[in-house]
Predict the structure of PEP-utilizing protein.
Amino acid sequence: MTPLTEFQREIILNEEDKQNYFWVQDDVHLAHAVSPLFASFQIPAMTKGTKTAFENLKMPLRQFMMKLADGRLYQATLPHEGDMPSRIREHQELVGTLFPIQKQRLMDSVEHIFSPFYRQLDAYRSQTATLAEAKQRVEELFAFYEKAWQLHFEIVMPRSGHSMALEEMYARLTNESDATAVYECLSGVMNKTLETDRELWKLAVQVKQSAVLEGIFTGFPTEEIVSQLGKQEEGRAFLTDLQAFLEVYGYRSPNSHEFLDETWIENPNQVLYMVSAYLQKEYDFEKEYAQIVQKREEKLLETLAKMPEGEGKQAFIQLHQWALDAWGLDEDHHFYIDAMLPAKSRLFLLRVGEMLVEANAVEAPNDIFFLYYDELLDVLSKPTLVSQTIERRKQEHEENKQKNVPPVYGTPPEQVPDDPILERVFGIKTPDVNEQEKHFSGYAASQGQYTGVVKVVRGPEDFSKIQAGDVLVCKTTTPPWTVLFSVVGAVVTDAGGILSHAGTVAREYRVPSVVGTKVATSVLRDGDIVTVDGTSGVVHFGKQ
């Protein structure tokens, strides 16, 4: 086995790390195995970026430390080392000042920091450069990754505090035992994920209005649609509209956090499949969205009617309005940072890979994703053939994808603080399966009850299994999965809490959902008949 370099030792989990800290695999955001190059960028960016961000926010946490094991990213949470009560008060006072400007902080960062850098990466792809210049640009990207993730957490973390403040005020003023009901007052807020889905739906409407287009979409496999569209005048006009869509919304990939995956703008087949999904049933995005907005407004009126008149009620109204203004932040930051940064980086790095192919250092441009960052810099400094290393890493990556990795490493702290924010996002319930009565539980993320046929989806490669009315069962979801929510009858996940992506989007689409079950993908199989009770958080199974 090749000895690890100093850089690799810094990012790979070792036995000493396991003795010193408690490590959790984040199956909500990073359930998949990642490539060595992506890990090389993401791990230092998260570790160093959170340290700066948490200090700037005066958080009771010092940082998130990230490490790599079996291709998965593990996270250790380090608490603030000073006086904790004082730190918490300082953090709350600071975050309170940010409530009114959360969305604006994101958009300012997008306008002045992220978009200019993305334009620079795009320019690099079309410019002639030497390997030395390419190395410098890779180093620029590495440095930007740390800045990006610092900004990511400075933008996102105040929203969690805002949510908890809203829950606390709701419970106090209404005397309701379930404070999470307040989130029904926050559905129906347009964001970049819903906006993307709306534009996909519009493309589907365009297909339905043309016998030529509909014939192509229903008569040919997804992989052949582009070539068939190119043979017809209406098809070529549709391809022009498709390209316009991709230029705005195409900088994302199925897993988001990865360099290996093709982006939508590279492979339009991913988008064409989603357009086809909208053709499966009668669906009107605008009508459905208007109904969700109306339901939210009705819920808010009901909530306010329960509250006594006075300063408390007025404070709730103000806090709710700030929350409503910023509620799209979760999906919007993912669009501009979590998804777009790896997508833009991938396209730039593929150009670097092309240069290394020309220098006879690698056989294919995407081979460089199987190198660690320090190895890539070495090859750019002194081009030498690294085929054996790449082939070994490719094999390791395939093996990692099949592994059932430990959910944690190390010893849990003796006293785990009750953190409602972590529960809302990540879900911390232990598995609860009743084999005798055939049911298991999770978090009640989206109300309603639905009985249907299970389809277990491991990744986007399984999307084609989904038929209208199926019950989507998966480990977790990310924004590129959202189109499925308009097709399925219910959603059940292994990971996440009610503020995870799956929980939030299920409420937007009024799809019954139970999340954070820990066991759904291991208990259920394709073809099972289940009843998903999104109101009580229980899934009943046992029928074929």
Residues 103 and 326 are 5 Å apart (CA to CA). The mean pLDDT is 92. The chain is about 55% helix and 10% strand. The first strand starts at residue 23 and ends at 25.
